[in-house]
Amino acid sequence: MGRNLNQANRQSPGPTSLPPLPERADRKRQKLVSVLEEMDSVMVAFSGGVDSAYLAYAAYRALGDSALAVTGESPSYPDHQRQMAKEISSRFGLPHLFIQTHEMESEAYRANNADRCFHCKNELYTTLTALANERGFQYVVDGSNADDRGDYRPGRQAAKSLGVRSPLEEVELTKQEIRYLSKLASLPTAEEPASACLSSRIPYQSPITPEKLLAVEEGETALRRLGFRHFRVRHHGQLVRLEFAPEEMSRALATEMMPRLVDALKAVGFTFVTVDLQGYRTGSLNEALPASPRFPVV
């Protein structure tokens, strides 16, 4: 029998049809504990992002050493997330392992077509499944949540084909609820911006190379040093397109900040520096995809 999570505080239902956040999150949290305990042992695909961090924490609380968090490392994995994964596993005592993945050896992945994420996740989950079988773990689980159903995520096809389960989605936990539960658990990811691999910053059909990935990572590191938190560095060859969240846009466009942005991004190899006036939004490169039965844009 695994150890249960601390219960969240309950509040009386409000006037809306949905129960208030603490109540519905706590109900789903309890269901998550039950699902994990029924699994008996799990290997968690742990990127260090909001969702997988909470899942790794919950799995360890429910299953103890029968839960192992595993992080796949490759040139597309941001060092910022690597450090977050190390911090969480150390602070909370999570059994944790780094492994190398080799999606860069795949021509289909490097070609960077609309199904790039499938090839990346197929490599990750194939590696994790083999490791889980070797070490006697019953399931490989990932951090997909209930909100991910409406997004374009070809990597989920790879997960399903390999039998990877998504406990957060199974119990209907949303991103908002996961952030709330993460805050209760004192996870440092509770208010972290959404995370994604560095390849997601490169437009489809533009080949993935280590040099491009390094330029993106160094560019995003430079923006963090300038104090920005919610942004993306989009690689368009010699041109970089910077996306900032609405609350940070005015600072990015301030007269005194603009030359600092230009200097920082030119220092990592870009020739032209632009700011996207639509601001930061996840999956903005999907906007260039044509809708089709195979690759729907939703």
Q: Would you mind describing this structure in some detail?
A:
- The protein is of the alpha/beta class and 298 residues long.
- It has two domains: 164 residues, HUPs (Rossmann fold, 3-Layer(aba) Sandwich), CATH 3.40.50.620; 91 residues, 2-Layer Sandwich (GMP Synthetase, Chain A, domain 3).
- The chain contains eleven helices and seven strands.
- The strands form two sheets. Strands 3-2-1-4 form a four-stranded parallel beta sheet, sandwiched between helices.
- Helix 2 links the parallel strand 1 and strand 2.
- Helix 1 crosses helix 2, helix 1 packs across helix 8 and helix 5 packs parallel to helix 6.
- The termini are far apart.
- The N terminus and C terminus are likely disordered.
List keywords for this structure.
Rossmann fold; three-stranded mixed beta sheet; disordered N terminus; globular; four-stranded parallel beta sheet; GMP Synthetase, Chain A, domain 3; 7 strands; 298 residues
Furnish the topology, listing elements before pairings.
Blueprint (H helix, E strand, L loop, with lengths): L20 H19 L2 E4 L4 H14 L3 E7 L5 H14 L3 E5 L6 H5 L4 H20 L3 E3 L13 H7 L5 H4 L4 H10 L25 H16 L5 E6 L2 E6 L1 H7 L5 H9 L5 E4 L23
Parallel strand pairs: 1-2, 1-4, 2-3, 6-7
Antiparallel strand pairs: 5-6
Helix pairs in contact: 1-2, 1-8, 2-8, 5-6
